[in-house]
Every structure is written in structure tokens, then in C-alpha cells.
């Protein structure tokens, strides 16, 4: 039995286990095999591991100190498949990005400077620079805070994240097809890469109420199947897959968009994560929506005309506010999340052979 040190943290509306890169190096096993065994996948309940059995609670953050003079932390994100027995490394998680700065400060990788300390992070999945501002009152590391995050019942440490020059980090272009709007499977959409590749679908184009609850949307299996078909076709159009069947489960993401509520929000959004409706909003999705609002001709243009510094996004958990600005002389999109350390642990990795994940195994896991 091998022991793997890890820290359990909440970032925004996601929970993740944080690992330092070296501890996942296990002779005879790939990192994917190690993570799947620790999380208890493939199994829809993840009953034999630390996975939370939902897409927002089956995540891993892998960190190491950077040797680059302009970067403090190298950060790699992994979405751990629940029933499919796969690890997806193709995208970042903006919510989990919020834990990286507090973790680095607590470990002493970054020295506090003044009331707010800046931590510079390179997300290795996308090559995205994230400049994080963490409160350090009187130059001291703290894990306490009174900030509130939509979708989280308790307060936490407010962390402000700036996604610097986020366009085209995965595909090489803000608009991978060269168009602000495309038609996919008979639906007018915007295919955009900022923060993460995202397919923006007007809710009325697929005949649904854009403010419907996640449970109401998830009950519509035909809708979910159609949205996944659109997402997979879009993956090919964006250069992310050779054919729809090869599209990654987590990339591109897909979001239903519609006008916001007067006096409350500018855009209503329901984002899907791993085939189900997100209970709040993926922060990389909020970055993409903000970039779309600043881009003429996208499917948001009808209700976000004109550039605006602040964008209010209506989610199932409440209103998320993003801000457009300049960092390092480049266009950047900022958002505040809260973070909290839940606990430190030693995870036991059994010495059994890695599970050979066959189609029969996957079918049995999905049916259980």
C-alpha cells in the first residue's frame, strides 16, 4: 500500500484534491491509473475512492513550483471521469484555479507582500497565465475570509483571478472557425476559445427556457443528446477532434445563453459539464462569455451590445460578475472566487493491478 499526501480544497463551486506533482509518480503505473484508483473510478458512486460522484467534485489539481522567473506555480488540471474510467487533461477549471494561490502561500512557495499578494500561475493545460490576488492582511498568510460566492453557503477567502490574454489558448484563435456565428446541426451558435473552448447556444434555438433549473434541463434526455451532438460536431469544426466520436468529454464545453433579467443581470447562462447541467458556472465559461460579449456578431450580441467593463451572468446559483481590464499590458478578464482548505490527508493507494477498463466494465459501472 502506497501513501499519497494530498490536500482537499474548495475553489468557487468546485471541490478538488490538490497533489504536488512528484507524489503522483508511482513505478509501474501511469498518472491516469493512479488518479483513477484513488478516486474510485470507473464507478458512478466512486464508492471505493475519494471522488465525489459529480463532475464538480471529481477533480484534481497538480502543482509544482515553477523555475521560470515570471511564474510562481505550474498548475495542471485533471477532470476525473466517474463512470467512464478516463482522465481528461484537455481543459482548465477556473473554479479550481482559485485554490492555487492560497496553497502556494501556505506552502511557502510565495512570500506574502503587503495586504494583497500576487501569485502568477501558468495553467499547463492551456498555456494560460492566471494572475491571482490573494488577501494577506498585514503581510500574513491567512485562510480565513468573509467573502461570499454564489452557490456556496458559507463564506471563504476571496481570491481575485485575472485570465490574461485568454483568447485562443487551446485552438490558437478566439474564433477557431473565423466566424462570430456558425450553424451546427441546424442551430445558430458561436464557437469561441477564451479560457476554454466553448459552444454558445441560444436557448430559444433549441426550444428551451434559458432560465430553467438544472434538474428540469437534465430531465430532457433528447435535449441533452442533441446538445452533445452539437458539441461533438463543434469539436471537429474547432480542430479539437478528427471526428465527433473522438471529441473529449470535457472539451469543448457547451452553454445555453439567453437575455438576463432587467436590473439583475445581462446574460442568463446554463452551462453543461460532462453531459449534465452545471449547478453554478464553470469560471472558464464565464471568461468565454465575457470575451463573446466583447466580440461583435456573436450570439450574445443581441443582448450585450457595446463593450462593457462589467458583465453580470445569471446562473442557477446566483449572479456571477466578471470584469474586463488590462494586466501586463494585455486584455484580461477578472472574476472573484472564494477558496477554503477542507483538510490535509494521506490517501492509500492499493498495490493491486491497475483495472483493465473494457467496454464490458464500463457498461457494468454505468448500469450499477
Report what the structure shows:
The protein is α+β, with helices and mostly antiparallel strands and 368 residues long. The protein has 7 helices and 17 strands. The protein has helices at residues 31-39, 94-97, 100-107, 214-218, 221-237, 283-293, 359-367; strands spanning 2-11, 14-20, 59-65, 73-80, 87-88, 116-123, 128-135, 157-164, 182-184, 187-194, 196-202, 253-259, 267-273, 276-277, 310-315, 318-327, 330-349. It has an 8-stranded mixed beta barrel with strand order 1-2-3-4-6-7-8-17. Strand 10 (187-194) and strand 11 (196-202) form a beta hairpin. It is globular, with a radius of gyration of 20 Å. It starts with a strand and ends with a helix. 47% of the residues are buried. Residues 358-368 have low confidence and may be disordered.
